[in-house]
Design goal:
Bound molecules: flavin-adenine dinucleotide
Shape: globular
Order of helices and strands: EHEHEHEHEHEHEHHHEHH
CATH architecture: Alpha-Beta Barrel
CATH topology: TIM Barrel
Distance between the termini: 28 Å
Strand order of the largest sheet: 1-2-3-4-5-6-7-8
Helix content: 40-55%
CATH class: Alpha Beta
């Protein structure tokens, strides 16, 4: 991919990074190495995911607490309301607030049976993310991000139902939506037009997944409802045993996707890091950022 000159700080793009709490000591080392490596990129904020299926809050809370204490990043905590009464959810919110969290990524979450299992709201809990946003707003003046699904949430009846839920989340006080990762920018643009036509005014921030491994991603994408376009197979064909070349293609693909979205008027992006730094850094380099210019753009902002 053609590289831009790095002589002026790039100011037309802002980005955030998503991490997940480590599940082992080895993964713990991997996360904090990645965080150290990504420190100079000056993201708008970072976010830490919340255990799937209503699992314990502890790993997210301890990870978020360390982000707040040891890094310069504005840090958001993801939060789900699955399998919990409202009181239990409020206790969780309170413990995050006490740890210094002011920004939540508010989600319904998946059924405890996993992605695709039928979802049963807890009878005494929040039934969906729109209700959770309203609950958060009653508790405090938090910054709130929510999810959006350009290719439709797998459980949604249709895209109109999906967009209606996004509108409810925005009407209840969400500040921005972060999308599920996608690779089809034409589809995203059509989706965004429908979102705007429905009266949703908050930023809808594309979720960008740099492709560490296309085969693994295909398994995961199916459950999320993300289509893997044929051009990706073509780009990666023949590179299965060539990790260095594969990484270069992955960085090009993600940077090209972002540049194309910038041409379509987008300027904010949420990068799924998978707790690894090199590919994310390569994408930002390809976009014409350098660590130094990212820092000075941040200082000037
Ligand atoms: C940016 C992002 C971050 C995420 N982070 C996490 C995380 O940290 N932890 C985690 O566990 N998961 C996470 N998820 C996954 C998310 O929890 C699942 O996609 C979940 O199934 C829906 O949660 P939601 O907040 O999007 O739901 P909602 O916004 O409440 O609903 C999503 C859509 O599903 C439909 N829907 C909801 N409930 C029903 C129902 N009962 N019947 C039919 N249709 C229904 C609605 O039409 C709606 O449009 C994340 C997803 C995204 C996009």
């Amino acid at each position: 991919m053609h590289q831009k000159k790095n002589d002026a700080p790039r100011r037309d793009i802002i980005f955030s990074f998503e991490f997940f709490p480590p599940k082992s000591e080895e993964m713990e080392g991997q996360l904090w190495n990645a965080v150290r490596d990504l420190q100079d990129w000056n993201p708008e904020f970072v976010s830490v995911t919340y255990g799937a299926g209503g699992t314990t809050k502890a790993p997210t809370l301890s990870t978020v607490t360390r982000f707040l204490a040891d890094t310069p990043f504005a840090t958001a905590s993801h939060l789900t309301c699955v399998s919990a009464t409202k009181e239990e959810t409020h206790q969780v919110i309170d413990s995050f607030r006490k740890a210094g969290v002011t920004h939540f990524v508010a989600l319904r979450g998946d059924a405890p049976g996993g992605v695709g299992a039928p979802y049963q709201p807890h009878p005494g809990g929040y039934a969906n993310a729109a209700e959770l946003v309203a609950g958060l707003k009653q508790i405090g003046d938090f910054e709130i991000s929510v999810s959006a699904y350009p290719e439709k949430h797998p459980e949604s009846r249709d895209q109109a139902a999906d967009i209606d839920m996004l509108k409810r989340k925005a009407d209840n006080g969400a500040d921005r939506a972060l999308t599920q990762f996608f690779f089809d920018n034409d589809n995203f643009e059509r989706y965004l037009e429908k979102v705007r036509a429905a009266g949703v005014k908050i930023p809808v921030v594309p979720g960008i997944m740099p492709i560490q491994n296309l085969t693994q991603l295909k398994r995961f994408a199916g459950a999320c409802g993300t289509v893997i376009p044929a051009f990706l197979d073509e780009r990666f064909a023949g590179y299965d045993d060539k990790p260095e070349e594969r990484a270069k293609i992955a960085a090009d693909v993600a940077a090209e996707q972002i540049e194309d979205l910038v041409r379509r008027g987008l300027h904010e992006f949420h990068l799924y890091t998978m707790n690894r730094a090199p590919l994310v850094s390569a994408v930002l380099n390809n976009l014409g950022f350098s660590r130094q210019t990212a820092r000075s753009a941040g200082a000037a902002a």
